[in-house]
Specification:
This protein is mainly α. 72% of the residues lie in helices and 1% in strands. It has twelve helices and two strands. Strands 1-2 form a two-stranded antiparallel ribbon. It starts with 7 loop residues before the first helix and ends in a 9-residue tail after the last helix.
């Protein structure tokens, strides 16, 4: 069967970001925001200087990079060379996408708009001259939050799969004493930031930017994430060789165990004890020595 383009976890993450932003936009257009005008919660989130926005969202790629690189370091120090390499490639590509999009958003308002007063050529001078700049500004929050959520979800899924598989492998028991608890803590942190990013994405859909600007931001976030996933999937599984003396996948371990048991069975078959047992079972073929 042909390999599916996206895994189940990846499709689920896409559905989550699209649904959350879509619900926020729908509620904003349905005038639900006006019903929350007197709420202190509404006042907190509508204020762009709230601590969640200042310390987390505006520094969103720093926190996301920290989690992704911690996952890479954990895999590296736990001798999971292939997983560490793929995670590092994912982070490098994602960072390039984030930097490219940051530059694009900086110039998008000027490229996609114009001032109603033709004497002003850029958004800053247009607004300073008390005129109106008609253009489409890509929502940076919608892009960053959706892109960061998808990147963390991808790394978290890979991390969980690796360390859940380790539980069934006897040769990794000595390393599990420290790597398993650390992996659990890191997975919990990733889940916490996924909840924060998806919550702030809903707030963005509810309070900030126009619907078209948020749709553009989400579309670019999904597009860049799909590009990263597609490029990483092109890396051959055996591109990075395993360290000497270590089996890197379950099939190799099973083959080794089968070889050990097979050698033990052959040794037992040729032992004197086994020969005595055969004589006891077949006295007629071995004379009357017993």
């Amino acid at each position: 069967m042909p390999r599916p383009v996206l895994k189940h976890e990846q499709r689920k993450a896409l559905i989550i970001v699209a649904s959350v932003l879509g619900i926020g936009v729908a509620l904003a257009n349905a005038s639900v925001v006006s019903l929350l005008a007197a709420s202190p919660v509404e006042g907190f989130f509508r204020n762009s200087k709230n601590f969640l926005n200042v310390w987390f969202v505006k520094k969103g790629w720093f926190w996301t990079s920290l989690l992704l690189l911690l996952s890479v370091a954990l895999n590296h120090f736990n001798s999971k060379t292939r997983a560490a390499f793929r995670g590092l490639v994912r982070w490098v590509l994602a960072t390039l996408c984030w930097a490219t999009m940051s530059r694009l958003m900086h110039h998008s308002d000027r490229l996609l708009g114009q001032c109603r007063n033709a004497s002003f050529a850029d958004p800053y001078s247009c607004r300073k001259g008390e005129s109106v700049w008609d253009g489409i500004e890509i929502s940076g929050h919608a892009f960053l939050l959706s892109f960061a959520f998808l990147c963390i979800a991808e790394e978290s899924s890979a991390l969980d799969a690796i360390y859940k598989e380790d539980v069934t492998m006897s040769h990794t028991i000595s390393r599990q004493t420290w790597s398993q608890p650390v992996a659990k803590v890191l997975s919990a942190l990733m889940m916490l930031f996924q909840l924060l990013w998806i919550g702030m994405l809903f707030v963005t859909g509810l309070y900030f930017h126009s619907a078209m600007e948020k749709i553009f931001g989400l579309a670019f976030g999904v597009l860049f994430w799909l590009s990263v996933v597609g490029l990483v999937s092109c890396i051959p599984e055996n591109y990075i060789d395993a360290p000497l003396g270590q089996a890197q996948d379950k099939n190799e371990i099973v083959n080794q165990q089968q070889g050990i048991f097979g050698d033990a069975a052959k040794a037992a078959a040729g032992s004197p004890l086994n020969d005595t047992h055969m004589r006891l079972r077949n006295p007629t073929t071995h004379g009357t020595e017993l």
